[in-house]
Structure formats: C-alpha cells, structure tokens
Amino acid sequence: MFTTHEIRMERGVLQYRRESLTGIRCRISPVRVERQIDTAPAMPSSRDGCPFCPDAIDASTPTFEDGSRLRCGESVTFPNLYPFAERHVVTVITPDHAPDRFDGRCLADAISGTAEALARSPGYASINWNYLPSAGASIVHPHLQGIADPEPTRLADLYISGGHRYLADHGRLYWDDLMEGERCSDRFFFEDDIFWSANPVPLGEREVRGILPVSTLAELGPYVEPLADGILRVIAFYRSLGTHAFNVSIFFDAPGKAGRGHRAFCSIIARLNPNSLSMCDSAFMERLHLEPVVLTLPEALGALFREKG
Length: 309
Known about the structure:
It is built from 7 helices and 14 strands. The protein is of the alpha+beta class. The chain has a single domain (about 1-309), classed as HIT family, subunit A (2-Layer Sandwich). The strands form 2 sheets. The protein has a 10-stranded antiparallel β-sheet, with helices on both faces. It has a 4-stranded mixed β-sheet with strand order 1-2-3-14, with no helix packed on it. Strand 4 and strand 5 (about 75-80) form a beta hairpin. The model has no long low-confidence stretch (mean pLDDT about 95).
C-alpha cells in the first residue's frame, strides 16, 4: 500500500514514503523531534468578545434563509459569515468557551447538526475541526466547519478516483485491503464500528485515520456516536503526549455515489501547542511542496497508543 526509501544518516534515519494509491508523499525525520519546539501550551482563555459564547451567539452569528439556526443538543449550527465553499456552515460544539475535556454526547450532537445542515447539498461534503490558533482556528471557542462543493477537494479526489480505479482493477475495495494489512501492523490503534490506525504516509504529525463502513454523508447516522468517541479517544491520546492543538477532517463521497469504491474516513493530525512566538509546524514543505515533514514514525505512534492505553 506504500513504499519506503530509507537513508541512514549520522544522527539517525530519514524516510521518504509514498502512498501507492494516490502518490501522496511525505518525509519522516525522527531526529527533528529533538528540537523540542513544542512546549507547554500558552492557552488563550479570555471570553471577552467571543461571538460563540451563550450571551453573544444569537446576536453575533447569521441565520439560514428561513431565519433559523440549527440546534442539536447543546450545539448550534449557522452559515459561515466568510464562506470559502458553496455550502459552508459553522457548528459551535458546546456553550463552554474552553472546556478541560470534550464530552462525547456534545461532539456527537455537533457532528449530527453539521451533517443535517449539509444534507441537502448535492456536493462533496466534509466536516472539519481546527482546534486552537496554532491549528488555524481564528476563534478559540470549539467549533466545527462543514463544507460542500460540486467538486471534491484535492485529497478527497485522490482517494475517490483512486478507490474507483482500484475496485475496477482488483474487484475489491482498496479500504478493505488497507484495513486487512493495517490490523497486523504496528500502526494499528483500535477497531469497533470504525477502524483506527496511524496513517503510514502521514499528512501531518501523529496522523491517525478512522475508516468508516459507509461512503456518503447520508449514511453517517448510525456511526456518529462511535465516530465522536473515536475522535475523542485520539484527542485524549494526544493530550497524554502533551499535544493540545489538532485538526480533524471527515471526508465523504457525493450523494448517490455509494458503491463505487470509496469509504468515508476521518483524518486527525496533531499541531504545535499555542505559543507566544506564534511558531507553527507548517512551513514551505507543507504549504508549497505539499510534501509534509513529520517527526513521528507511524509504527512508533501505534506503540505509544498501546503504551498510553
């Protein structure tokens, strides 16, 4: 499913990895973790001026065409004021501005609310989460973003088109073959209704992937709770390693496209903690070359997860 070219250097190893289905490439340089650039988080906590706190949300956020906001449990969903997709919504997960831990019910409700707001879009949907400013969040208060467009984003397109070719060539789902191999690898995390493991060709630091048994947003319903629980289990693992900031994206095929070889999947990556230097873990390699440099070997990540569990 992927290839590795390893170079032994004076202070360790450098690996070049390439995913066979998509051609996605990354570089893994474990020695770079010795830079210790991720320090204890300088957590922004002030509620002053937060538009997502309970006393401000109804006055500061827009409504849908019928004048409503969508409420699911404690979550509130509304259109994004500054959209970059044909359909772009925001879901405030919890009234709590800076929770010490995330509640599974709250996250499941927020995912359900986002999915409902995107349900009538004919496009390719994704549900996304930037947590904390060092992960790209412009507002600290925890919130999801749902987007849908007539065309899939670049990463989704690589997997959707690649999975379709794989099914035509092999008569099997790429995702089933991938899970079969990963179950026996050092990268495996856990499996219930959703399969979770470290991505062998990571797009970011400590990337973990969850593979769902469905492909489209319309099929998500029965898997919302195990999806939320799995995401929170990975986040708790990150926190046990001292990482607080992260990104999450859940990718879906378009409505009516079930059965053409794709599986919806969730990707989670750790980011640098918020810090006074505004230091970020994305530089020219990640943003301009689309070839991330990561520090943690996926096989080591699986071992760390079992150790912390």
